[in-house]
Each structure stands twice: as structure tokens, then as C-alpha cells.
Amino acid sequence: MDDSRSHRSEFGPAPVHDRGLGSFASFGFGRISFCDLGGIGYGAGFAYSTAKIAGGGALFRSFPGRGGRRFATGFIRPTPGSIDGGRLVLDSRNRAGHHRGDVVGGGPAPDGLARATIPFRRGSMRTLRILHLAAVMAMLLVLLVLRLAQMQIVQGESWQEEARRSRLHKRAIPFHRGRILDRQGRVLARDRRSYDLMFEYRSFRRGHVAGQLLEAYALLGQTPYGLDGCFQHAEKMAEGMLQWRPSQLRVLPSRSRRDLVFYLRRLFGMPSTDALLEWIESGSGRLADFHPAAQQHFTQRLKAAREAESRLRPWLAQAFWQGYGLENLTRPSFFAALEQERQGLERLIRLKALRMAAGRAMALTAYEVYLLLRKPEQESLSPNELLEAEQERQVFLTQLSRSWGLRDDQASRAELARRLLGRLPDLEQEGDGTETSDIIQRQILESGALLRQVEMVVPEHLAGVRRRLMLEVHRNRVIRLAKNIPFDLVDLLTQNPEAFPGLYTEENPIRDYPASVAPHLVGMVRSASSEDLREYLDLREAYQELRGILERTPQEEERFRRLRDQLFRMVLRPGETRGRSGVEISFEEVLRGQRGYLEVLEAGEENATPKELEFQAPRHGRDVQLGLDAELQRAAEMAIVQGYQHARRRAQLDPKLARLAVPEGLLQPRCGFALIDLQDGSLLVAATSPSFTVDDFRQRYDEIRQPGGPLRQRALGGHYLGPQAPYPGSTFKLVVAVEALSQDRTQWHRMRECLGYYQPKNGKRGLYCDRRAGHLDVAMEEAIMRSCNVYFYKLGEELGYEALYRRSQQLGFGEPTGLRLTQTVGEEGSWQFGGPNAGLERGANFLTEPQFARHSLSPLHLSIGQAYVQASPLQMARFFGWLGTGKLWRPRLVLAAGDTDFAADFQSPAYPDWMRDLLNQAMRGVVEHPFHGTAYDAQFPLAEFFVAGKTGTAQVGGNSEDPRFRVHGWFAAYWPHYEPRFSAAILCENSGLHGGDIASLVLYEFLKSPAMASYQGQLPPPPAPEEPSQ
Length: 1030
Description:
This protein is of the alpha+beta class. The protein is built from 39 helices and 33 strands. Helix 7 runs antiparallel to helix 12, helix 22 runs antiparallel to helix 23 and helix 31 crosses helix 33. The longest helix is centred in the N-terminal third of the chain and has 33 residues. The protein is elongated. The N and C termini lie far apart (about 125 Å). The N terminus is likely disordered.
């Protein structure tokens, strides 16, 4: 280093190292002017030239020359004391001055004219000057004493608090989310202990040979390598350092000199700090001569560092890192990865420096600069507000451009805004930490060029910024290198942490779903998105700025507390998770805990042990218990597969079924299955097929996200495509029967003729029965058993649409089921349909209002569950539970959340016992009658389980020959019919088969499963059959 250079710039050159990326570590230490040092590739006497970076516009340009500083193209401002166009340039006080080492030449006046002189007495003039100088010195001394008194007496406590605050370090302690349990206490979701590999550059640069070498050289404006190169060429770099002489180090200001001594002592085992500082100040000779044992100490340290790296190497092999998102990290590639992270920190430091400089220029904080420049969301503001915001933005950029000596045109202002926001020309958004090394380097070069321009023009805008930001960023920004690392690596790092400075493990629980059931309902969690991370970083920046203010105003204090609460309690931090769907998000406030923290006060250099100041244990989340039974859920999912297999085999043997069935539909079931416990309304089963696993969601999302695919919960019925509309078909005929019997009990016995065809009174075309030959004269019981459409056409026509509509509403149709999962708490504290999971049910339960059903055929179609009504399997299970017990249950998916128990809730629409007995008799016939029962099946006899139910076949419109528009097959039921305990509904979507040919088979397989057998054993025995009267 040239001893004649007596100053260093905070924004020095970007020296070259083996990666071609200039380190900016020199910025912030010393006062050597960048123009004095010269630019990269220029010799002495050349001013720095900032070239236009590919992809971005040039804001300024410098030219070789003397006598003036060069600014943005079009802005050439001569330095005071220089000659410009034959005239002497004066400053604001008409003095020919100099700036930062510029030499002011003597000689005659620039206009060549002689000046008259006034004689004076040399002795008296000298005495006067001495008196003036003494007065100035005395005044300065008085000011210094007053300032010291103010700092030590008046503001002593504040400055002590600031000094203490600068050494405080708070580390968050993660919490564990609460568990999600089924009704039997089986775990459906839990946090599994896991550890991530973390990297803290501050500890690394202070404790590792590579970091110490890089930072020591950077203090002198020399950074020949990155971290990987420093570790690889450590011997060469150390040899060069041992040749340093005091004259080369005296140019550093006091603070930078102490920083250098810190690294030298650790690298070479130097004696005390004071002795080394004294050598720099007044010593001579080489560093190696000052401390002869330096080379030996360094060799031992380097050997220990490389041995530690070799122990770490097996766990950083390619196979390991491929599993955790980082590839090809073998030596020295691991250090190359650390170097990229260091560059990312450097980019952040430069970006913050630019914003701080802009803030100083315009009397704003750095965060206020960011908020001003960031364009607001157009949806959040009116057109006038957007226009005002843009005008304010342009005024700010204009004033800042003039202050920094930049071009002031639209393109240049846009370029300045882009650099202050840290964006690249081809990137619309700010960086989220996933950018490539090339992008990071490009942003470092751009911001460095602009920083050097600012420093040349208004150095006070950047005074002291570098060191402050280095301390802040290196202390607070911790990088997550890998997730879920093996416990062997955790053990290696925790046994001897001093051997791996900067690397440590952090517990970061992973959400685990051991039961792998009902993912739509249980839900999933998500990691922090780029928007979450940006929000976190913005809040933390604003919090740090307010935290650094010694005496905050009441308004600042209020904002500080609000930001602190958001930052430490609410905002999603890197590595944390939050509910994405299902119970995980609906009950986020219960499941989510609260972070703990450990606050320590860092000790001095001679005593590295920190002092623990405060410990706050984390508060873990609370459990949520569901009404689901995991074993029953699995049994239902298996029953769907088995029921479809039976239907497929039958279709292969029966030509009639083969014409109706959809082969591909039977290969891949599309089915919804809901089961309710009629004792307490618990939703025991909500099975859907096809479904997915958490791994499917993470790895095959593009495949499963297709509309109407596995992400649709068919038991709840929402998110359907047109052909998937859940028309209830003939299962809805029981609603018509209830209305008819409520109006006239004799309807039970009234006969109606079915000839297989019915011509409505005002209809232009006839309507057919499912049996084209007709059922002849049938009463209500037989019409239910045989599912006669003509009977219910005539009955519905007599009752009218409005009567059927009112009865349907009373029984829950046309509105959501009341499931808390698809509800949210309203403004008055009541639960109402909505929230993040509302889509699971949205649109599934629909009932056309009378004013939109004026056609003469409307009541006829409604009476057979077509066109004017839709209902999910869960809705139909509720209705059939009412048919069995008289209670219309609100399904209980969540039994308890934390300390809150959700009580059973039901309504009791009028349902006299006589009506229940009659309809129970008819629905038993559906299952038991060998000739009339549409669900009777000798091979799969539901009567063994005392089931009463109703089949359904729902048309979905469209082309009946198109497999997508084949009919749905339904079966809804309750059991045991003598004392109903369970109700269920099964929808086999677009199967093309009658409900008795497929849906009833699914229920049979479920009822004979071992999981259901445990519940069947709890049922009361059937009553003894009545003996026939004598």
C-alpha cells in the first residue's frame, strides 16, 4: 500500500478477487478517497469511471481529468480552487478552496491584475493571529467540556443504554404447534422435532480463519479472494500479512485499526491489543518480526480449521445436499456457497446504505424511503390517491437526483428508484433470497457504483453508515443453509461448536401427519412465502430504526410497541409455518403457540462468554380434537375401492350394467362418503375419492390441482364441475313424502297409477319413469321401495313448488350444513359461512327459490331431486339422521379446541312418531324386500346390519352417451332401524349405475369392516320379533 495515501473512503474501490466480484468490505473503514485510489484497471491520476452495467441504465459517468470532480453526464462541477475556462472557481464564500485533499495552487490572480497592498506591522499582526487562535482553541475546549458534561451527566443513562443495546443479542426459541387428534385421541397432525443448519456470518468472520483473512485484507481495500479462495490460499495470504509494516497500517482511522488488530490477534496469536496498537503507531519492521511465533500459531489454527472441515465433509456430500435443496457442496464448494451467502449480505448492506443516504438527504428514515418508492397496490387506492402518490414519488426522486448530482430526466429517475428498491431491470419484484449468484453480483456492482458517486458528491450522507450496517446486518441476518439435517450432523456441531464458528443448528419442528387421513379436513401448513419474508424484513427494518432512537416521542413509542408485537408474535418468520388449509388454518390461533427467546449481553474481547439477561420459555400451541375417527375414515376409503371393484366385476358379467357403467369411472372411483354419529352429531367419516397425501401435494401439485380432481372434497360437495353437480335424485323423494303426510295422513294409502310415462297437465312433453313398463297402481310405501318417478311426479304436482320449497328449507336444504370448518366468526361473534375453507362446501347445497321456478314442470323435477336442488353427501346424511331420530344435527367436526368445547347442536323440525314409523317401514323395504327393494342384494345384504335407506339415481344433463354426463349413484341410510345410531350418505359420481348397483355395495363393505365392528358391538340388540296373534 502506498504510504503517501493518508485517507480512506467509506466507499472504497471494489478490489478484484478470484471470482471477478469486487468486495465492498473496504467501504466504511477509513477515509481514503476513491478517486485517490484509482479505479479498477486505471493507473494513478485517473478518476473513477462508472460503466453502464448490462441491463441497467447509467446514472452518472466520470472522466479522466484534473481540476474538478465529475458528476452525471451533463453535470460537471469544478472543484473550488481549480481553473475552469480561464477563471478561478470560488466556493460559496468566494474562497478558492479545496476538498478532500485537492491541492490549491498559488500564483497570481486569475485575471492577471495586480492587487494593491496595505502596509502592516508584522509583529502586531502575528500577536493578533495568536490571540485569535487562542480564543478559538479556548472556545473549542469549552464546547468540548460542555459536550462531555452533557453526555456523561445529562444523557449518561441514555448513552449507557445505547452501549448496552449495541451488545444485546436476542435469539428466538421456537414453539411447537398444537396437535390435531381424532375422537379416540389418535394423532392426526403433530410437530416432529427437526433441526436446520444455520449460518451466521458475524460469528464466522470473527472465529474462522477464512473469514478473518477476508475481513483483514478488506480493511486495507484488498480482497483478492472470496471465502472459498481464502480457505484454499490461506498460507499465501498469511505470508503476505506477515510482511505488513506499521506505515502501511497507520493510514487506517482508529476504529478500523482496532478492527484489524482484532483479526490479527486471532490469526497469529498476537499479544495484547494495546501492544499491537502501539507497534502500529510507533513501531517498525515487519509484522513477522514483531511477533516471531505468528507463523507457527497460524499454521496450527489453519490445521485445526481444515481438520474440522474434513469431519464436516461427509455430511456435506452431494447425496445429502440433494435431499435438502443444495447440490454439489463438496470442498471447496461448501465455502463457495458460504461466499454466495456473504455476497447476499453485502448486497443488503449496500441497499440499506443507499436508502439511509437518501433518507439523510431528504430528512427521512430508510424505511420511509422504501415506503415512498414502493408503488402501492392499485386496488387499495383510488385513482386520485394513486396520482398523488406518484407525484410525491417523482418530486422525491427529482430532489434526490439533484442532491446527488445525477441526471434529472424520467429515465434516470426510474433508474434511481429501481436501484433504491434493489430491483433489476428484468425483475419486477424485489429479491426474495432465491436469486442466482450472477444476479447478486450484478446488484452489488450497481449499488456500489451509485454509492461511490454519492460519496464523492455528499460524503456526509454516508458518514459512519458502513460500520453501523455491518454490525446490524451481520448480527441480525442469519441464513438457513439446509432443513431437517441428520441428527449425526446435529451432534457433530453441538459437541464442539468452537470448531465450526458461524455454523450452528436451530430447532425447527416439521409438521407431521402420521395418520394420513382426511387431508382436506385436517389440512396442511405452509412455510413463509416471499411475501411473508418481505413483510417480516420490512417490519424488522422499521423496528430496528425505532429501536435505535434513544428518546422516542409518544407516537414513535406507540408505533415501536405495535411493530414489536407484530414482529415477535404475529408475522411469519423464516423457517416457521402457518396453517394453509383445513383445521390447520381455521384454528390457527389455537394451534399456534408463541415464541420464547433468550437475550444475552455479549462480553468483551478478552471474555467471550456472554451473560444471560433474560429467558422467556416458548408457549406451545394447544390441541384440537376432531369428531373424525381415523380408523373408520380408512375403512370408508377402503370400502369405496372394494365397492367399485364389485361393481366393475358385475358390469363385466351383466350386459345391461356394462351398457350403463363408465369403465374408466369404475377404475378410478369418484365418490363421497359422509357418516354421522346420531348420539352427538359427530362427523365420524368424510371420505372422498380420489384423494391425496401431503407428499402428493408437495411433489405432484400440478397433477392433482386439476379442476374436479383430488383436491375436491366430495363428501362436502364444493368445487364441482358442471357434470359433477350433486343432484340428490330419488333420495330426495323422502322430503316430498314428509310434506305430503304432513298435509294429509291418508296420502300413505292413496293409490296412483304408473304406466311408465306421465303427461303433465301443462307440459308439452311427457316424463318417463325409471321402469318404462310402469308400476301400475302404487301407494306411497311401494313407491318409495320401488322408487317410482311417476308417483312422485303426480304427488309433487299436487303439492306445488312453494310447499316443497318450504319443507326443504325446514330440513336444511339450500344452505350450508353448519360445519365449523367452513364457517368463520362474524362481527357479532356468531359463526357464519365463510373463511378460508368455505370452498369445500360452496355451491354444493342449493335450492332454487320459488320466484325462479315458475315453470309448470318445476315441482315435478324437484319431487325427484333433479335440477332445482343440490345436496352434498353430508347434507343427505343429516337429513336421513333426522328421518331416523327426529334430530337435524349440526355436524360436529371439531369437538374441542384448546379450552373450548363445542357442544352438540341440533334442531327438531316437527316429525311425529307415526310418520317416522311409516317412513321407517318403507325404507326398510328398500333394503329387505326381495322383489320391490331397490337396495336388496342377496350377495351384499344390508339387512344383516338392520339398515333402512333409499337409493337414488341422479341425471346430470348433457349428452347421456358422454361418460362425463353419466348418472350419479346414491345411497342414503340410517341404522339400526330399531334404534338409529348412525346415518350415512354415499354419492358415486358419474358412475352410470343405479345407486343399488354401486353405492349400497360401498356401504356394505364399510359395515363389515373391523373398524366398524367395534362400533356395532356397542349397539343395543334388536327387539325380539313379535309373535303372530292366535
